[in-house]
Amino acid sequence: MIQSLLIANRGEIACRIIRTARSMGIRTVAVYSDADAKALHVREADAAVHIGASAARESYLVGEKIIAAAKASGAEAIHPGYGFLSENAEFAQAVIDAGLIWVGPAPASITAMGLKDAAKTLMAEAGVPVTPGYMGENQDPVFLGQQAAEIGYPVLIKAVAGGGGKGMRKVDDAADFADALASCQREASASFGNAHVLIEKYIQRPRHIEVQVFGDTHGNIVHLFERDCSLQRRHQKVIEEAPAPGMDEATREQLCAAAVKAAKAVDYVGAGTIEFIADASEGLRVDRIWFMEMNTRLQVEHPVTEEITGVDLVEWQLRVASGEPLPLRQDELRIDGHAIEARLYAEDPAKGFLPSVGRLEFFELDGSVRIDTGVCQGSEVSPFYDPMIAKMIAHDLDREGAIQSLAWALNDSKIWPVKNNAAFLINALEHPDFASGNVDTGLLQRAGDDLIPDENADIDDLARSAEQYTHQAIAGFRLNGDRNHKAVLSVDGIATEVDIPIVEYVDPRPFVFSQNAPSGFFQTGNGQTWWVEPYRYAGGAHASAHDGDIFSPMPGRIIAVDVAAGDVVTKGQRLLTLEAMKMEHSLTAPFDGVVAELNAEAGGQVQVEALLVRIEAADEK
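Predicted structure:
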């Protein structure tokens, strides 16, 4: 058995691996960048090694530094987690060449399945059904446009080295193809260093269903049933569950058999996921389910499989990497109940889901469900990495119970001042179509603004809380006055005047609350958290900005400017494109007007809250 393990990752997955390794008596070594010097995974590991600057390309993506850290710390094995270098065949080979144990599949298997076009060709040869499309070497834009027309719109452009929704665009019409292709290739190049794409038929009512597979060095390969990951936003998974709703036993058996066949085609060892796309227009039918891609690593959503099977997949990874056979045979694996996972992100749904960074001054999650996280109260959410701060996983006897348990737990989330998507997740879980199992990858887009929570606090509720809070805080301060008191609540820095009923106690005279009361309190509800300061005006620092001011929502680089000073613009028109966190974010006009001020140029770096554009309405000119 491996005795010492270096985890070439960060955040919640690093903490997750540390947890299992510790239970197995394995010493753990963390690596960290400048931004992660005080991170939770660094504190939880037995040892930690600094590997570079905050940017991933200078730390977590530098294989030589990670291998050197393993040797310097005495680690004998490297676990890559997911993301970063987890599916990099050259890194896997370098680990092996350095005399270390690679906790993952053979480099040849990673290579075979790493490029989506080559993987689909291989799967077709192995008898696994694949979606129709173009997967060739010709990357000429005109030629690719012709292929898209032959396939028939709508089509999906996908980076062959992609993942996580990056480098992927749906195109509904030939007129939009060229722009979508260019954007897709830019994003793919920035994220993966490879601008090569494939074109495939877009399934009109798709469901994303994947099968967990596992192989060992003794020739054994099993599946651990399926997961449904259809609830997605911009091709990124939001909520995952196992088993898939509406999956009958016959279809499950054939689907999982196809997944095992796919794994055997590349002599797979370790944890892997075979991803399928299903046409759900007539329910789940095996003749309408096609191979999409294989992820040669542990998946973000692996906890739902662990919950329904009782298997610790990280433990299996470590045992298989140590040369042991799989702990269970296929006929010993069973489905127990239902599990659902929600990805809790530091992002603002009310502002287009832009990432929210900063210090978690208040962070408390409901422990009635499983929580996998890499942060704690006081942690910093960095702009350098993916903004997922936790995964919350509920397991129950049935799907309805799991949904209810997860919604309740999300409702009790207490996170401040960093914005997060807890309320959005609750709304998604409670959506009638999701609750009934009528899911597909377009559900969140169709639901649209109905799922976006109102970020304004219920002032009446806050007033009642303020009354209770200040009554407890300064119960001895009394003053004759009216039965209702005009007061000001500062809610997250925004001042609101409210009527608060005066509380009476032993002395029948009413009282008001001292300006010297403690500074404030947290109010939570429906997955949202507000900081409330009773009876204080927000002051000049919180004065409202001009309605047409467009600020940078985060640090980033301007990659395109579509307007000039003096231009007439319409509501919703794209003004510029900001690249941040490896994603492109379009900033648009809030109303019809004129570009009165422009402080952005292509290629320029901007800081958070920098004024980029000012739009003035026509009547202001």
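Summary: Residues 177-192 form the longest helix (16 residues).
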